[in-house]
Design brief:
Blueprint: E1 12-17, H1 27-37, E2 46-50, H2 59-83
Parallel strand pairs: 1-2
Helix pairs in contact: 1-2
Length: 84
């Protein structure tokens, strides 16, 4: 068994937003990161988040990144609902 499989069944925060730069991710980039995490984490245990604090970012950039995080999570949520 791969070591990563040990996280199955546990709550996992996935840093789908990189706060080390000012580039605002697209919702699709966020969704792709979340899809990759879903290979190892159950959907009800996955918590999309940033990879660290956003204090160094301007408000405008931080807001854009959080909007992308929300929109990317919504994309994946809709995909999961369609699979049911």
């Amino acid at each position: 068994m791969e070591l990563i499989e040990l996280i199955r069944g546990k709550k996992v925060m996935v840093g789908a937003i990189d706060v080390a730069n000012n580039t605002v991710e697209t919702p699709e980039e966020v969704a792709e990161t979340l899809r990759k995490a879903l290979q190892f984490v159950d959907a009800d245990k996955l918590y999309p988040c940033t990879n660290c604090g956003m204090a160094p970012l301007s408000r405008e950039v931080a807001r854009g990144k959080l909007q992308a995080l929300s929109a990317g999570a919504a994309i994946v949520r809709k995909e999961l609902e369609a699979q049911r």
